[in-house]
Amino acid sequence: MHNFIELFIEHLKSERNSSKNTIQSYTLDLMDFSKNVDLCAEITEINIVSYLSFLKEQHLQISTINRKLSALRQFFKFLCLEEYINSDPMKFIQQQRQRRALPKVLSEEVVQKLQHSTDLLEYSEKIRADLILYLLYGSGLRVSELISIKRNAIVNPKFIRIFGKGSRERIVPLSGKVMLLLEEWYTVCKDSIWVFPSTNPLKPITRQRVFQILKKIAAIAGIENISPHVLRHAFATHILDNGADLLSVKKMLGHQDIATTEIYTHVSRKKLRETVKKYHPLSS
Q1: What is the model's pTM?
Q2: DSSP state at residue 137
Q3: Catalytic: which of 11, 255, 270, 271?
């Protein structure tokens, strides 16, 4: 089993050019599976069902269970194609259904409070924190996209080139404030290809460091549970609240399926209130 896992991981690296995060995730999930099955016998659908029951007993989130099943599905598909096994034990195993949770949404007032909190930081820290906020909340970037921005990604003063999930490229609008912040930031942060370099200028800042920066300014503002993804949610909801169309928001967020973007229409409370006030006969 372990030899098969090594072969599969090598396949991901050399033939599918998978990202480091994907490879790490697949490796951990497959190693977890290997620790919970009898490796001396042929793995069958019964083993998979037993493992699925084990995962449910751990009270894991459905999304986590589905991620592990996805890793197993790709793994056994590879083994079948390479003729290491005769039948796929995942053939009749279905993904677990889950109710999509509504994202937490910050009010515009809370976001403004968060932005004002950077005034208490030392100058270079303030510029970096402001730039991070304006890119996460102002352009709706994922944290993985934020940390991987290179200086040459700025297409012109109004747009930035982003490589999102699956290395899919998209062009994202920038606010005028971002360009002013970049000019200031570049006077502080020099000699790196990255917009946000680590202490080693040859490497970008880490996801963990971005979380730490947000946690620090959130503490100053007296706000809890702030994360890059919460700011991305706020971007999508607020821009829809103010009249943006769904297709444009889909493109800016880099979603493949518009159903993913539509979830933000369910949390757009401002627009719902205005619609009821305008069209419902009792509103008068």
Answers
A1: 0.61
A2: H
A3: 255
pLDDT digits (tens, 9 = 90+) for 79-128: 999 999 989 999 888 888 765 565 677 888 999 999 999 999 999 999 99
* Annotated catalytic residue, options 142, 233, 238, 250: 142
Q: What is the pLDDT of residues 180-189, one digit of tens each?
A: 999 999 999 9
C-alpha to C-alpha distance for 190 and 194, rounded to whole angstroms: 9
264 is catalytic: yes
Topology of the domain comprising 2-81: DNA polymerase; domain 1 (1.10.150)
- Interaxial angle between packed helices 207-221 and 228-241, expressed in degrees from 0 to 180 and rounded to the nearest 10: 70
Q: Mean pLDDT across the chain, nearest whole number?
A: 87
Which tokens in the block code for residue 17?
Answer: 């050019």
Q: Please give the order of strands across the beta sheet that includes 154-156.
A: 154-156, 159-163, 169-173
CB 82 within 8 A of CB 246: no
238 contact partners, CB below 8 Å, separation of at least 6: 108, 111
User: Phi then psi for 267, rounded to 5 degrees?
Assistant: -110, 10
Instruction: From the candidates 68, 128, 232, 250, give the one annotated as an active-site residue.
Output: 232
DSSP 25-74: HHHHHHHHHHHTS-TTS---HHHHHHHHHHHHHTT--HHHHHHHHHHHHH
Q: Is 232 a catalytic residue?
A: yes
Right CATH number for 108-276 from 3.30.420.40, 1.10.760.10, 1.10.443.10, 1.20.120.450?
Answer: 1.10.443.10
Is 215 an annotated catalytic residue? no
Cα–Cα distance, 138 to 165 (Å, whole number): 19
- Give yes or no: 229 in active site: yes
For 83, residues 6+ apart whose C-beta sits below 8 A from its C-beta are none
Catalytic: 142? yes
Is the separation of the CB atoms in 27 and 10 below 8 Å?
no
